[in-house]
Amino acid sequence: MTRRRPPAGLLVPAAGALALIVVPVAALLVHAPWRTLLSQITSEEVRTALRLSIECSLLAVGVSLILGVPLAWMLARSDFPGRSLIRALVTLPLVLPPVVGGVALLLAFGAHGFAGEALSHIGVSLPFTTAGTVLAETFVAMPFLVIAVEAGLRQADERYEEAAATLGAGPWTRFWRITLPLIMPALVAGAALTWARALGEFGATITFAGNLPGTTQTMPLAVYVALESDTDGAIALSLVLLAVSLVVLIGLRDRWLGTTR
User: Fold this and answer.
1) Which pTM value belongs to this model?
2) Which of 112, 121, 145, 245 is the most buried (most CB within 10 A)?
3) Contacts of 56 (CB under 8 A, 6+ apart)
4) How far apart are the first and last CA of the chain?
5) C-alpha distances in Å from residue 207, one per residue of 40, 41, 184, 227
């Protein structure tokens, strides 16, 4: 494809959009406490918060895959009453303020919530627990996976699945051997976006799960606490999150999304 020079009228707004991303990141790097960075990011508190963040975000991705892929398949391949409403509800957490999502989770899964009371009968309590953190992160992040996988399913050529069906392949065989490889780039991209969103989740987590060190205090919450009394510590924690996110996303781009020139 022939590359053309960008129109002059687009350069200024495009540069402005880039600046909105680059300038804050550059400011973070400029003000980073490089001399004490190693000691700060290797402290027990930081390692605990980072471990908890990675564990909870990965678990949120796992739950999103288990629940979100079937939902995406239904939205893309099935026709049933209320499909448009369900699609709107799926995307609701994308525009809902996270703290509102946390309040909703607390009202539903709290001690006096209808779901919380049902779970209490089997000895399960979610608020202010690590499992509650996973639930909050899944609530806000799963829509990214559902949207990406639904788009991938809509773009996948169904003729391959139909041909496999005529050769005697059952539904599960067609899904694992045909459908899944076709949507794999969309699935991985959706999982990456879900992971990144879960890793950075703050509002719903602190509202529903609290900010308990070693139990629910993930890296974003640790940054918030450090910012009140230790600016250098907050910047150091932010750099850790920035580095982890960049490494994973760049790795996914090289492996699954390819590179463009």
Assistant:
1) 0.84
2) 145
3) 130, 133, 134, 137, 198, 218
4) 11
5) 27, 26, 34, 18
Phi-psi region of 76 (alpha: psi -120 to 50; beta: other; left: phi over 0): alpha
Contacts 24+ apart (CB under 8 A), 84-90: 90/143, 90/146, 90/147
Q: Which residues have a Cβ under 8 Å from the Cβ of 237 and sit 6 or more positions away?
A: 40, 41, 46, 49, 219, 222, 223, 226
Helices (H), the chain: 8-30, 37-41, 44-77, 83-95, 98-109, 114-120, 130-155, 158-166, 171-174, 180-199, 203-208, 219-229, 231-252
The answer to whether 186 and 149 have CB atoms below 8 angstroms apart is: yes
Asked whether 140 and 197 are in contact (CB, 8 A), the reply is yes
For each of the chain's 261 residues, which pLDDT tens digit applies?
Answer: 566 777 777 888 988 998 998 898 888 888 888 888 888 788 888 888 889 999 999 999 999 999 999 999 999 888 888 888 999 999 999 999 989 999 999 999 988 888 888 888 888 889 999 999 999 999 999 999 999 999 988 887 777 777 877 878 777 888 888 888 888 888 988 998 899 899 989 999 999 999 999 899 999 998 888 888 788 888 888 888 888 778 767 766 655 555 544
- The SS3 assignment for 184 reads helix
